[in-house]
Amino acid sequence: MLIPSKDISSLNKTLLLFAIIALLLNNSTLVLASENEQQISYIETVPCDYYGNFSFNSTAANESVHWQVELGPRLPGSNASFALRESIKENLTDWTFEEETHYREDFYLTNLIATYKPFNSSSQEIYLVAHYDSRDRAERDDNESLRDIPIDGANDGASATAVLIEMGKIIPQMNLNHTVKLFFTDAEDQGERAGIYGSKAWAENKTDDELSDISAFIVIDMIGDYDLHFTHVWPGTSELWLTIQSLAEALGLVEGEEDCLGNPGVDVFDIDTSHGVIDDHVAAFERGVPAIDIIDIHSGEGAEKWGGYWHTHNDTIDKVSADSLGKIGQLLELGLLSNSWILNSDSNVTAEINETKQNTDVENSFALGIISLSITFGVFLIIFVLDYRIKKI
Ligand SMILES: [Zn+2]
Q1: Residues within 5 A (CB) of ion ligand 1
Q2: Which domain holds residue 162?
Q3: Strand, coil or helix: what is 204?
Q4: pTM for the full predicted model
Q5: Is 38 part of any domain?
Q6: Is there a domain that residue 194 lies in?
Q7: Torsions phi, psi for 128 (to 5 deg)
Q8: What is the CATH number of the domain that holds 115?
Q9: Torsion angle in degrees (nearest 10) through CA of 246, 250, 256, 261
Q10: 138 alpha carbon to ligand 1 midpoint, in Å?
Protein backbone atom coordinates (compact mmCIF):
# COMPACT_ATOMS: atom_id res chain seq x y z
CA MET A 1 0.00 0.00 0.00
CA LEU A 2 1.23 3.44 -0.87
CA ILE A 3 0.34 6.24 1.49
CA PRO A 4 0.22 9.51 -0.48
CA SER A 5 3.10 11.71 0.56
CA LYS A 6 0.70 14.63 1.19
CA ASP A 7 -1.21 12.56 3.71
CA ILE A 8 1.94 11.38 5.35
CA SER A 9 3.12 14.91 5.86
CA SER A 10 -0.21 16.01 7.36
CA LEU A 11 -0.27 12.85 9.48
CA ASN A 12 3.28 13.61 10.61
CA LYS A 13 2.24 17.15 11.45
CA THR A 14 -0.61 15.85 13.59
CA LEU A 15 1.66 13.40 15.33
CA LEU A 16 4.24 16.10 15.90
CA LEU A 17 1.52 18.27 17.39
CA PHE A 18 0.67 15.46 19.80
CA ALA A 19 4.34 15.12 20.65
CA ILE A 20 4.60 18.84 21.37
CA ILE A 21 1.46 18.72 23.54
CA ALA A 22 2.91 15.76 25.44
CA LEU A 23 6.18 17.65 25.98
CA LEU A 24 4.30 20.73 27.18
CA LEU A 25 2.29 18.52 29.51
CA ASN A 26 5.55 17.22 30.86
CA ASN A 27 6.81 20.75 31.57
CA SER A 28 3.59 22.00 33.13
CA THR A 29 3.02 19.12 35.53
CA LEU A 30 4.92 20.72 38.39
CA VAL A 31 2.86 23.90 38.19
CA LEU A 32 -0.46 22.03 37.94
CA ALA A 33 0.45 19.65 40.73
CA SER A 34 1.49 22.42 43.06
CA GLU A 35 -1.70 24.39 42.38
CA ASN A 36 -3.73 21.41 43.48
CA GLU A 37 -1.80 20.78 46.63
CA GLN A 38 -1.81 24.12 48.46
CA GLN A 39 -4.13 23.76 51.50
CA ILE A 40 -4.72 26.92 53.51
CA SER A 41 -7.71 28.79 54.91
CA TYR A 42 -8.25 32.46 55.59
CA ILE A 43 -10.33 33.67 58.52
CA GLU A 44 -13.98 34.32 57.71
CA THR A 45 -14.80 37.96 57.25
CA VAL A 46 -17.55 40.08 55.69
CA PRO A 47 -15.97 42.83 53.56
CA CYS A 48 -19.19 44.90 53.58
CA ASP A 49 -18.77 45.33 57.36
CA TYR A 50 -15.69 47.42 56.53
CA TYR A 51 -17.05 49.17 53.45
CA GLY A 52 -17.12 52.92 53.76
CA ASN A 53 -14.83 55.87 53.66
CA PHE A 54 -11.96 54.76 51.51
CA SER A 55 -8.74 56.70 51.81
CA PHE A 56 -7.02 55.55 48.62
CA ASN A 57 -6.16 58.60 46.51
CA SER A 58 -6.55 57.68 42.84
CA THR A 59 -5.69 61.21 41.64
CA ALA A 60 -2.35 61.06 43.43
CA ALA A 61 -1.74 57.58 41.99
CA ASN A 62 -2.39 58.89 38.50
CA GLU A 63 0.01 61.79 39.10
CA SER A 64 2.63 59.28 40.19
CA VAL A 65 2.24 57.41 36.89
CA HIS A 66 2.93 60.71 35.07
CA TRP A 67 5.95 61.40 37.22
CA GLN A 68 7.39 57.92 36.73
CA VAL A 69 7.00 58.08 32.96
CA GLU A 70 8.68 61.49 32.89
CA LEU A 71 11.70 59.97 34.64
CA GLY A 72 12.34 58.01 31.44
CA PRO A 73 12.81 54.25 31.14
CA ARG A 74 13.21 52.70 34.61
CA LEU A 75 15.82 50.18 33.50
CA PRO A 76 17.82 48.28 36.15
CA GLY A 77 20.86 50.28 37.19
CA SER A 78 19.67 53.50 35.50
CA ASN A 79 19.44 56.94 37.07
CA ALA A 80 15.67 56.86 36.57
CA SER A 81 15.45 53.61 38.52
CA PHE A 82 17.53 55.11 41.34
CA ALA A 83 15.44 58.30 41.42
CA LEU A 84 12.22 56.30 41.66
CA ARG A 85 13.50 54.26 44.61
CA GLU A 86 14.67 57.42 46.37
CA SER A 87 11.28 59.03 45.84
CA ILE A 88 9.47 55.99 47.26
CA LYS A 89 11.66 56.08 50.37
CA GLU A 90 11.11 59.83 50.83
CA ASN A 91 7.34 59.53 50.43
CA LEU A 92 6.77 56.62 52.80
CA THR A 93 8.19 57.99 56.04
CA ASP A 94 6.52 55.46 58.38
CA TRP A 95 8.15 52.51 56.69
CA THR A 96 11.51 50.82 57.02
CA PHE A 97 13.33 49.88 53.83
CA GLU A 98 15.74 47.30 52.63
CA GLU A 99 17.34 47.09 49.22
CA GLU A 100 18.85 43.96 47.77
CA THR A 101 21.03 43.94 44.70
CA HIS A 102 21.63 40.96 42.45
CA TYR A 103 23.63 40.54 39.26
CA ARG A 104 21.63 38.94 36.46
CA GLU A 105 22.33 38.61 32.71
CA ASP A 106 24.33 41.80 32.12
CA PHE A 107 22.87 44.14 34.72
CA TYR A 108 22.50 44.76 38.45
CA LEU A 109 18.93 44.75 39.66
CA THR A 110 17.73 46.28 42.92
CA ASN A 111 14.67 45.04 44.76
CA LEU A 112 13.16 47.51 47.20
CA ILE A 113 11.17 46.17 50.15
CA ALA A 114 9.26 48.44 52.52
CA THR A 115 8.01 47.09 55.85
CA TYR A 116 5.29 48.44 58.11
CA LYS A 117 5.15 46.49 61.33
CA PRO A 118 2.53 47.75 63.78
CA PHE A 119 3.28 47.69 67.50
CA ASN A 120 0.88 44.76 68.10
CA SER A 121 1.75 42.87 64.93
CA SER A 122 0.97 39.16 64.65
CA SER A 123 3.62 37.05 62.97
CA GLN A 124 1.72 37.08 59.67
CA GLU A 125 3.01 39.17 56.80
CA ILE A 126 1.03 40.38 53.80
CA TYR A 127 3.03 41.21 50.68
CA LEU A 128 1.75 43.66 48.09
CA VAL A 129 4.00 43.42 45.04
CA ALA A 130 4.61 45.38 41.82
CA HIS A 131 7.50 45.65 39.39
CA TYR A 132 8.89 49.17 39.19
CA ASP A 133 11.09 48.62 36.14
CA SER A 134 9.84 49.35 32.64
CA ARG A 135 10.53 47.21 29.61
CA ASP A 136 13.82 47.66 27.78
CA ARG A 137 12.28 47.02 24.34
CA ALA A 138 9.04 47.13 22.35
CA GLU A 139 9.10 43.81 20.52
CA ARG A 140 5.40 43.96 19.69
CA ASP A 141 5.43 47.41 18.16
CA ASP A 142 4.16 47.66 14.57
CA ASN A 143 7.16 49.82 13.69
CA GLU A 144 10.07 47.39 13.49
CA SER A 145 12.66 50.16 13.63
CA LEU A 146 11.44 51.14 17.11
CA ARG A 147 11.44 47.69 18.65
CA ASP A 148 14.85 48.05 20.31
CA ILE A 149 13.84 51.25 22.09
CA PRO A 150 12.62 51.06 25.74
CA ILE A 151 8.90 51.74 26.27
CA ASP A 152 7.23 54.27 28.58
CA GLY A 153 5.63 51.46 30.59
CA ALA A 154 2.83 53.72 31.86
CA ASN A 155 0.52 50.76 32.38
CA ASP A 156 3.13 47.98 32.41
CA GLY A 157 5.20 49.11 35.40
CA ALA A 158 4.18 52.59 36.52
CA SER A 159 0.46 51.91 37.17
CA ALA A 160 0.89 49.18 39.78
CA THR A 161 3.93 50.92 41.29
CA ALA A 162 1.78 54.03 41.78
CA VAL A 163 -0.94 52.01 43.52
CA LEU A 164 1.63 50.50 45.87
CA ILE A 165 3.06 53.92 46.74
CA GLU A 166 -0.40 55.30 47.54
CA MET A 167 -1.18 52.20 49.62
CA GLY A 168 2.01 52.92 51.53
CA LYS A 169 0.68 56.36 52.46
CA ILE A 170 -2.59 55.07 53.97
CA ILE A 171 -1.62 51.74 55.55
CA PRO A 172 -0.05 53.26 58.71
CA GLN A 173 -3.47 54.82 59.56
CA MET A 174 -5.41 51.58 59.19
CA ASN A 175 -4.85 50.18 62.70
CA LEU A 176 -3.80 46.81 61.36
CA ASN A 177 -2.39 44.15 63.64
CA HIS A 178 -0.24 42.39 61.11
CA THR A 179 2.80 43.33 59.10
CA VAL A 180 2.52 44.62 55.55
CA LYS A 181 5.39 44.62 53.08
CA LEU A 182 5.45 46.57 49.85
CA PHE A 183 7.75 44.74 47.49
CA PHE A 184 8.92 46.80 44.51
CA THR A 185 10.56 44.21 42.27
CA ASP A 186 13.16 45.10 39.68
CA ALA A 187 13.85 43.50 36.28
CA GLU A 188 10.49 41.79 35.91
CA ASP A 189 10.30 43.01 32.35
CA GLN A 190 13.88 42.81 31.06
CA GLY A 191 15.29 40.54 28.40
CA GLU A 192 13.81 38.73 25.45
CA ARG A 193 11.25 36.83 27.49
CA ALA A 194 10.69 39.23 30.43
CA GLY A 195 12.70 37.32 33.00
CA ILE A 196 10.97 38.10 36.37
CA TYR A 197 14.55 38.34 37.64
CA GLY A 198 13.95 40.38 40.79
CA SER A 199 11.24 38.23 42.35
CA LYS A 200 13.13 35.06 41.42
CA ALA A 201 16.31 36.32 43.08
CA TRP A 202 14.29 37.29 46.17
CA ALA A 203 12.68 33.84 46.44
CA GLU A 204 16.00 32.07 45.91
CA ASN A 205 17.48 33.90 48.87
CA LYS A 206 14.69 33.19 51.37
CA THR A 207 14.64 30.32 53.83
CA ASP A 208 11.50 28.18 54.30
CA ASP A 209 11.22 29.66 57.76
CA GLU A 210 11.14 33.24 56.46
CA LEU A 211 8.58 32.35 53.80
CA SER A 212 6.32 30.57 56.29
CA ASP A 213 5.29 33.93 57.82
CA ILE A 214 3.78 35.15 54.54
CA SER A 215 -0.01 34.78 54.54
CA ALA A 216 -0.58 36.38 51.13
CA PHE A 217 1.69 37.49 48.28
CA ILE A 218 -0.44 39.65 46.02
CA VAL A 219 1.12 40.88 42.79
CA ILE A 220 -0.52 43.68 40.82
CA ASP A 221 0.58 44.43 37.26
CA MET A 222 -0.91 46.33 34.30
CA ILE A 223 -3.97 47.52 36.22
CA GLY A 224 -4.30 51.07 34.86
CA ASP A 225 -6.15 50.37 31.62
CA TYR A 226 -9.33 52.43 31.00
CA ASP A 227 -11.16 49.24 30.12
CA LEU A 228 -10.14 47.29 33.21
CA HIS A 229 -10.82 43.55 33.22
CA PHE A 230 -8.95 41.03 35.27
CA THR A 231 -9.47 37.31 35.56
CA HIS A 232 -8.39 34.29 37.53
CA VAL A 233 -4.71 33.71 36.78
CA TRP A 234 -2.79 30.50 37.28
CA PRO A 235 -0.53 29.38 38.77
CA GLY A 236 -2.05 30.88 41.90
CA THR A 237 -3.60 29.99 45.24
CA SER A 238 -7.32 29.21 44.92
CA GLU A 239 -8.15 30.31 48.48
CA LEU A 240 -6.54 33.66 47.82
CA TRP A 241 -8.56 34.09 44.61
CA LEU A 242 -11.75 33.47 46.60
CA THR A 243 -10.90 36.39 48.87
CA ILE A 244 -10.50 38.58 45.77
CA GLN A 245 -13.91 37.42 44.54
CA SER A 246 -15.59 38.51 47.83
CA LEU A 247 -13.81 41.87 47.80
CA ALA A 248 -14.58 42.50 44.13
CA GLU A 249 -18.25 41.66 44.72
CA ALA A 250 -18.37 44.05 47.67
CA LEU A 251 -16.96 46.83 45.47
CA GLY A 252 -19.35 46.20 42.58
CA LEU A 253 -16.67 44.79 40.28
CA VAL A 254 -18.45 41.52 39.49
CA GLU A 255 -21.24 41.37 36.92
CA GLY A 256 -24.41 39.78 38.27
CA GLU A 257 -23.55 40.53 41.92
CA GLU A 258 -24.70 43.46 44.05
CA ASP A 259 -22.15 45.64 45.80
CA CYS A 260 -22.36 46.56 49.51
CA LEU A 261 -24.80 49.36 48.73
CA GLY A 262 -27.10 47.13 46.69
CA ASN A 263 -26.03 48.47 43.30
CA PRO A 264 -25.49 46.01 40.43
CA GLY A 265 -21.88 45.14 39.77
CA VAL A 266 -20.07 45.72 36.48
CA ASP A 267 -17.78 43.31 34.69
CA VAL A 268 -14.28 44.10 35.99
CA PHE A 269 -13.32 40.83 37.68
CA ASP A 270 -14.28 37.43 36.30
CA ILE A 271 -13.10 34.48 38.40
CA ASP A 272 -14.57 31.95 35.95
CA THR A 273 -12.20 32.93 33.14
CA SER A 274 -8.64 31.83 33.68
CA HIS A 275 -5.33 32.56 32.01
CA GLY A 276 -1.84 31.24 32.58
CA VAL A 277 0.56 34.08 33.37
CA ILE A 278 4.23 34.00 34.31
CA ASP A 279 4.77 37.01 36.54
CA ASP A 280 6.33 37.98 39.88
CA HIS A 281 3.98 35.67 41.81
CA VAL A 282 5.43 32.48 40.32
CA ALA A 283 8.71 32.16 42.25
CA ALA A 284 6.96 32.74 45.59
CA PHE A 285 4.13 30.36 44.68
CA GLU A 286 6.59 27.63 43.74
CA ARG A 287 8.14 27.96 47.20
CA GLY A 288 4.75 27.29 48.85
CA VAL A 289 3.75 30.89 49.54
CA PRO A 290 0.04 31.68 48.95
CA ALA A 291 0.38 33.91 45.88
CA ILE A 292 -1.69 35.41 43.05
CA ASP A 293 -1.32 37.92 40.23
CA ILE A 294 -3.93 40.61 39.63
CA ILE A 295 -3.30 41.57 36.02
CA ASP A 296 -5.27 42.78 33.02
CA ILE A 297 -3.72 41.10 29.99
CA HIS A 298 -5.96 43.00 27.56
CA SER A 299 -4.30 46.40 27.06
CA GLY A 300 -6.78 48.79 25.51
CA GLU A 301 -10.49 48.59 24.87
CA GLY A 302 -11.48 45.31 23.25
CA ALA A 303 -7.85 44.21 22.90
CA GLU A 304 -6.98 40.56 22.39
CA LYS A 305 -5.20 38.89 25.29
CA TRP A 306 -1.57 39.92 25.26
CA GLY A 307 -2.59 42.34 22.53
CA GLY A 308 -3.28 46.03 22.26
CA TYR A 309 -0.68 48.40 23.72
CA TRP A 310 1.25 45.71 25.61
CA HIS A 311 5.03 45.89 24.95
CA THR A 312 4.58 48.59 22.32
CA HIS A 313 5.26 52.33 22.26
CA ASN A 314 1.54 52.86 22.77
CA ASP A 315 1.84 51.95 26.46
CA THR A 316 1.65 55.65 27.30
CA ILE A 317 0.17 57.82 30.04
CA ASP A 318 -2.98 58.71 28.09
CA LYS A 319 -4.04 55.04 28.26
CA VAL A 320 -4.00 55.01 32.08
CA SER A 321 -7.13 55.81 34.04
CA ALA A 322 -7.22 57.17 37.59
CA ASP A 323 -10.54 55.40 38.01
CA SER A 324 -8.98 51.99 37.29
CA LEU A 325 -6.09 52.69 39.67
CA GLY A 326 -8.72 53.60 42.27
CA LYS A 327 -10.59 50.33 41.80
CA ILE A 328 -7.47 48.27 42.52
CA GLY A 329 -6.45 50.61 45.35
CA GLN A 330 -9.85 50.17 47.02
CA LEU A 331 -9.72 46.41 46.54
CA LEU A 332 -6.39 46.28 48.39
CA GLU A 333 -7.59 48.75 51.01
CA LEU A 334 -10.77 46.78 51.73
CA GLY A 335 -8.79 43.52 51.78
CA LEU A 336 -6.48 44.87 54.47
CA LEU A 337 -9.23 46.56 56.51
CA SER A 338 -11.38 43.41 56.53
CA ASN A 339 -8.48 41.09 57.44
CA SER A 340 -9.23 39.08 54.30
CA TRP A 341 -5.64 37.84 54.06
CA ILE A 342 -5.15 36.57 57.59
CA LEU A 343 -4.81 32.82 57.84
CA ASN A 344 -6.67 30.77 60.41
CA SER A 345 -4.24 30.06 63.21
CA ASP A 346 -4.89 26.32 62.83
CA SER A 347 -3.75 26.56 59.20
CA ASN A 348 -0.32 26.35 60.74
CA VAL A 349 0.94 27.91 57.69
CA THR A 350 3.38 27.22 54.99
CA ALA A 351 6.51 25.66 56.43
CA GLU A 352 4.68 22.40 56.95
CA ILE A 353 2.75 22.79 53.72
CA ASN A 354 6.04 23.39 51.97
CA GLU A 355 7.38 20.06 53.00
CA THR A 356 4.33 17.97 52.11
CA LYS A 357 3.70 20.02 49.01
CA GLN A 358 7.18 19.53 47.69
CA ASN A 359 6.92 15.79 48.30
CA THR A 360 3.56 15.46 46.59
CA ASP A 361 4.76 17.73 43.79
CA VAL A 362 7.65 15.43 43.15
CA GLU A 363 5.42 12.33 43.23
CA ASN A 364 2.74 13.84 41.01
CA SER A 365 5.23 15.31 38.60
CA PHE A 366 7.07 12.03 38.40
CA ALA A 367 3.91 10.05 37.59
CA LEU A 368 2.62 12.60 35.07
CA GLY A 369 6.12 12.97 33.66
CA ILE A 370 6.40 9.23 33.01
CA ILE A 371 3.00 9.22 31.26
CA SER A 372 3.78 12.20 29.05
CA LEU A 373 7.26 10.93 28.23
CA SER A 374 5.74 7.57 27.24
CA ILE A 375 3.27 9.37 24.94
CA THR A 376 6.11 11.43 23.45
CA PHE A 377 8.24 8.36 22.90
CA GLY A 378 5.31 6.43 21.36
CA VAL A 379 4.52 9.24 18.94
CA PHE A 380 8.13 9.60 17.84
CA LEU A 381 8.30 5.84 17.33
CA ILE A 382 5.23 5.96 15.04
CA ILE A 383 6.75 8.86 13.06
CA PHE A 384 10.00 6.92 12.72
CA VAL A 385 8.26 3.74 11.52
CA LEU A 386 6.10 5.61 9.01
CA ASP A 387 9.12 7.50 7.65
CA TYR A 388 11.01 4.24 7.35
CA ARG A 389 8.13 2.64 5.42
CA ILE A 390 7.94 5.61 3.04
CA LYS A 391 11.66 5.46 2.35
CA LYS A 392 11.37 1.73 1.69
CA ILE A 393 8.53 2.31 -0.77
ZN1 LIG B 1 5.63 43.72 30.64
Answers
A1: 156, 189
A2: 43-343
A3: helix
A4: 0.81
A5: no
A6: yes
A7: -110, 130
A8: 3.40.630.10
A9: 160
A10: 10
